[in-house]
Amino acid sequence: MEQAVWMYFGIIAVIVGFGAILTIVSWNTESSYVQSFRDSIDKMGIQCNIVCALSPGNNLPIDCSLPSGMVLYTTENKICGLYNKESKCAICNCNVAEYRLDLNTSLATEAFNVHAYKCFFERTKNGTVMECKG
């Protein structure tokens, strides 16, 4: 009888342990997506400022990892993104033409967790034009 009690106790402890491990892994994965989102917005802001300092006609690309569920957009002199309940903007030294990339679609969320994009920044007379392709 005592052995059966210890066996059941062991089984329950293993199940609780697996639950805790899965929770930690899930939280860590989501945390890495949020960090990827933040890093991408920061990199785009830096690249935009570099392009703003150049003469019109220059075009510089940057590689970005954008998580599924993210919406990237520009407004005036800002490059902004929304991911889950977090929003982040990077301020550019010149105006950025309107642009929107929506990765919050069923196709995007089912296809990949993180998308690799190459974002191009082109200096124009009136500011900068941004476009991401992936």
Give structural notes.
- The chain is α+β, with helices and mostly antiparallel strands.
- The protein contains 2 helices and 7 strands, in the order αβββββαββ.
- The chain has one domain.
- It has helices spanning about 1-50, 105-110, and strands spanning about 60-65, 70-75, 80-85, 85-90, 100, 115-125, 125-134.
- It has a 4-stranded antiparallel β-sheet, with helices on one face.
Provide key terms for this protein.
134 residues, alpha+beta, 4-stranded antiparallel beta sheet, 3-stranded antiparallel beta sheet, 2 helices, 7 strands, 36% strand, rod-shaped
In short:
The protein has 134 residues and is α+β, with helices and mostly antiparallel strands.
